[in-house]
Structures are given as C-alpha cells and as structure tokens.
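Thread title: Can someone regenerate the structure for this chain?

I was given the following input by a collaborator and told the matching structure tokens would be attached. They weren't. Posting the sequence so someone can regenerate them.
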Amino acid sequence: QVQLVESGGGLVQPGGSLRLSCAASGIIFRIYVMGWYRQAPGKQRELVAAITSGGLTNYADSVKGRFTISRDNAKNTVYLQMNSLKPEDTAVYYCNADSGSRGGMNYWGKGTLVTVSS
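Best answer:
Regenerated them for you:
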C-alpha cells in the first residue's frame, strides 16, 4: 500500500520559516519525481516545487529564492524548506509522487495546512 504522509505544517508569522516533510512508503522512492503542490481556498491546486530522481529541481516563480526542495532517498523522504513566508503562501500543501515514463504511477498525500498570519 502506497502512503505519502506530510508533516510540518502550522501557523507562522509573515517572514517566518517552516520545513515540510513527506515520508513515502510502498514505492521505489528513488525513481520517482517528487513534488510539492498547494491549494489555497477558492483556488486551483498548483505546483510549488519538484525534484527529479537525479536531483534536478523546478520551482514556481512565486517561491523562487524562498523555498528549497530536497530529498533523502535513504529515508524515502522529500522536504520543502520555506523561508520568508508571506500570507499568500497560506494553503494546504500536498506531496506528490510521479513515476513518469516508468509505469505512469501518480500518488498524493492528504496534505498539511500552512497558515501565514500575524
């Protein structure tokens, strides 16, 4: 059974930092492209950042220079370090695993809420 379990969300003041973690099980983690998406109230889910099996990264323009995605294949975990948080970063953050051309499998976590507010 595949599980993606996010953690690390919470309430933070503007300008603060949070680190999200996503622990994966039931998949061959090292071959998957791992991504973080977010969905704010009334908005569509959007890609925040992604990291390939080889460590290549991609970021939404809105988070470049503030967020960093990383992965630890030994721990089957992907991280999202979020710095200089803004109120507009408030959203539910979801972890995604995509095997791409290797079987076309795609999995989602249940999400973790990040609220940026004073």
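Residues 6 and 22 are 4 Å apart (CA to CA).
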